[in-house]
Design brief:
- By secondary structure, the chain is α+β, with helices and mostly antiparallel strands.
- The protein has three domains: 63-337, no CATH class; 418-525, no CATH class; 528-599, no CATH class.
- The chain has helices at residues 23-26, 41-46, 56-63, 70-86, 96-99, 120-139, 143-160, 167-181, 190-194, 206-225, 229-232, 247-250, 255-279, 284-301, 307-314, 323-328, 333-336, 354-359, 370-388, 453-467, 525-533; strands spanning 66-67, 203-204, 418-428, 435-438, 476-485, 491-492, 554-556, 563-566, 572-576, 581-585, 590-593, 597-599.
- A four-stranded antiparallel β-sheet has the order 4-3-5-6. The chain has a two-stranded antiparallel sheet with strand order 1-2. Strands 7-12 form a two-stranded antiparallel ribbon.
- β9 and β10 (581-585) form a beta hairpin.
- α6 crosses α7 (143-160) and α10 packs parallel to α19 (370-388).
- The radius of gyration is 29 Å and the shape is globular.
- The chain starts with 22 loop residues before the first helix and ends with a strand.
- This is Vitamin K-dependent gamma-carboxylase isoform X1.
């Protein structure tokens, strides 16, 4: 059983040779009288015959094959429950007044500049509607309407603030979008109590296919993105091996090996293989154990809200769809009356049944309904789009920085870690020439803007409007942002001599004022680590690299009385502003810097 499951048998089915053929297979034409034809390798492995993909008509019939709604109904319930818990937390309902207070002078970063938050009272209404939609999805009550009530506010809030984007928030929106078109209210739902035709009725196979392929893509594309050299060499999450969860591994190996082999190597192997192993009957029990262990660990390692639990809720989708019935059947009879139904599902007009195909005249194609065709079209187009989107950055070049695209829809989870050493915002009055400085992050509630050119442009535009209220005319704004990615040298991300207010930016063109990542210095990371190991715990060290013709100004505070500059490579001029002295350093030389001095 795989992408296209056959008739369900067990949540953890035994090998094919040890279990009876599913009912659909028992109806196949017999090769000999009294003996059923053995299933082909394709049906045993994938759940369908190769001929089912030989034409559009047969593919539509396959994708609309009747399937037990139980597994889908349980997932719908769990997803709605988790989203209801997520809305007060990660969506921000609990601190809405802090984020959208009326009259608050703050710069925002929507995907589209015309998007603006509503007044605070209306934002509470938006979140209330979203919460009611999540509860409605959980209960299967007014199901389609509940999906819309959840989805419309969710995507509005999502597009309203790019600084909160991450992969799992994007995934929640995708799963909700898929459920809108599915018949997930055919089992364990309030709608089923009100409408007998919906109660415990078959659902088309594509309902499961789309969800399974979505989760497969999350795992597999995340694994492909982890083939990045930084991840393979153990630089992406170098300090994670210190966490107490990895203490058992540190009994057998060093912290460095734990980080390289367990954190990075284990994460790479799991993401690359989990989707395939979940599809196959023989490997599914092992895959369920390891992905469950993985997500439980993530819930302790990272502050990522309901994401680990949502992924845990998706894992049973890969089991046989009737697994809830089999599980409920294990309970005592008196207790089953409080649980979902265990009897077989009823027929549905939305499915294509095998006996109907067998009874039609030879050579005559069954006339498929519009709903069946649209379901198949949606399945094919959606899966293709999801495989394409993580690699669509050649179109949206303006969102590419040192990494491709906005973080959140590429499944490059945890591949890049950043640290910021120095951020300076300089403004200049366009009329008087007066120069001043702003605290980094002023008029904003996020720090994500420091890493993205599109957000920097939005931030500069917003600041240029706000500074006019402080008697700064025609302001020019310059950013000097120093970033280290995956333990490299600290270096400039943007050109500090470019006025970002007037700078050109387009979502479809490469950003001209973006400084390149100094890839040729990546090999220095080993030496930088060796230098750090030679220092005591009381000594702080910063490794920086810069481009020719630029300068960095720093003030050495009195707390840093023993400060020195060591030149590892190249040539640099040092100017002590207060004493008006200049020094030229060559490779391997160093200079002692006294406290309370400006150094350039």
């Amino acid at each position: 059983m795989s992408i296209f499951p056959e008739a369900p048998l067990s949540p953890f089915p035994s090998p094919e040779a040890e279990r009876p053929a599913p009912p659909a297979l028992q109806q196949m034409p017999r090769k000999e009288k009294g003996a059923s034809a053995p299933p082909s390798w394709a049906r045993r492995l994938l759940g369908f015959e190769r001929g089912d993909l030989s034409g559009w008509h047969r593919l539509v019939c396959l994708l609309n094959r009747p399937t037990d709604p139980a597994g889908l109904g349980v997932f719908r319930f769990l997803f709605g429950l988790l989203m209801a818990l997520d809305i007060p937390q990660e969506r921000g309902l609990s601190y809405l007044d802090h984020k959208y207070l009326d009259g608050l002078q703050v710069c925002r970063f929507p995907l589209f500049n015309f998007l603006e938050p509503l007044p605070l009272d209306w934002m509470y209404l938006v979140y209330t509607v979203m919460l009611l939609g999540a509860v409605g999805i959980m209960l299967g009550c007014f199901y389609r309407l509940s999906c819309l009530l959840f989805l419309l506010p969710y995507w509005y809030v999502f597009f309203l603030d790019k600084t909160t984007w991450n992969n799992h928030s994007y995934l929640y929106g995708l799963l909700g979008f898929q459920l809108l078109f599915m018949n997930a209210n055919r089992y364990w739902s309030v709608d089923g109590l009100w409408h007998p035709r919906k109660r415990n009725a078959h659902v088309p196979l594509w309902n499961y296919t789309v969800l399974r392929m979505q989760i497969f893509i999350v795992y597999f594309i995340a694994g492909i993105k982890k083939l990045d050299a930084d991840w393979v060499e153990g630089y992406s999450m170098g300090s994670l091996g210190r966490h107490w969860l990895f203490s058992p591994f540190r009994l057998l190996m060093s912290e460095e090996l734990t980080s390289l082999l367990v954190v990075h190597g284990g994460g790479l192997v799991l993401d690359l293989t989990a989707g395939f192993l979940l599809f196959l009957d023989a490997t599914r029990p092992f895959a369920l154990f390891f992905v469950s262990y993985f997500h439980c660990m993530n819930s302790q390692l990272f502050s990522i809200g309901m994401f680990p639990f949502t992924m845990l809720a998706t894992s049973p989708l890969f089991c046989y769809p009737d697994w809830p019935r089999r599980l409920i059947a294990c309970f005592p009879a008196w207790f089953q009356m409080f649980l979902p139904l265990t009897k077989p599902p009823q027929r549905s007009l939305e499915c294509v049944y095998l006996e109907m195909e067998q009874q039609r005249p030879k050579g005559a194609a069954k006339k498929l309904g519009l709903r069946q065709k649209l379901g198949a079209i949606f399945t094919v187009l959606y899966i293709l789009e999801q495989f394409f989107l993580p690699y669509s950055h050649f179109i949206t070049k303006g969102y590419n920085n040192w990494t491709n695209g906005l973080y959140g829809y590429s499944w490059d989870m945890m591949v890049h870690s950043r640290s910021h050493q120095h951020v300076k915002i300089t403004y200049r009055d366009g009329r008087t020439g007066e120069v001043g400085y702003l605290n980094p992050g002023v008029f904003t509630q996020s720090r994500r803007w420091k890493d993205h050119a599109d957000m920097l442009k939005q931030y500069a535009t917003c600041l240029s409007h706000l500074l006019r209220d402080y008697n700064v005319s025609e302001p020019e704004i310059y950013f000097d942002v120093w970033v280290s990615i995956n333990d490299r040298f600290q270096q400039r991300l943007f050109d500090p001599n470019t006025d970002i207010v007037q700078a050109h930016w387009s979502p479809f063109q490469k950003t001209p004022w973006l400084k390149p990542l100094l890839i040729d210095l990546s090999s220095w990371r080993t030496k930088l680590t060796e230098i750090e190991k030679t220092l005591d715990n009381q000594t702080e060290v910063v490794f920086i690299a810069d481009f020719p013709g630029l300068h960095l100004e720093n003030f050495v505070s009195e707390d840093l009385g023993n400060t020195s500059l060591h030149l590892l490579k190249g040539e640099v001029n040092v100017e002590v502003v207060s004493s008006q002295k200049n020094y030229s350093l060559q490779e391997g030389e160093k200079i002692q810097v006294r406290a309370r001095l400006n150094v350039m």
